[in-house]
Amino acid sequence: MAPPAAPPPAAAPEFAQKCDGCGACVPVCAETILHIAESKAQVDFARGECTFCNDCVEACDRGALSAAALKAWGGRPAVAQNCLGASGVICRACGDACGASAIRFAVSVAGAPPQIDLSACNGCGACVAPCPVGAISVRVQEVCA
Hints:
The protein contains 4 helices and 6 strands, in the order αββααβαβββ. By secondary structure, the protein is an alpha+beta fold.
């Protein structure tokens, strides 16, 4: 399982400096994916996906979350070796959950692991929760303000 991450609208290092764990962003998250841990807001995509609604940005009066960082969110899914497809099992749970249609499967290979089109992926994390073996995590590749 992936370590907790800063919410998508977090701009590093501003987030680390400005987030004091006040929790104002948590109750406004309609997807209930935000929580406070280690004195910082964190996202848990195992709870659901980010809809990029901007409510957490509006609730954050510390400036730790920003609309600019939300647009530049660099989170992308990574598939671990325990993926059922890598074991020859046909599973399409992550692809079915992907509203951006960024996850594809080889048609000619039964039980192939998913292929992620990073140019189509928005990093919402919708693919994480439905994975029956927890093989998908969202990792931040680059977040800039």
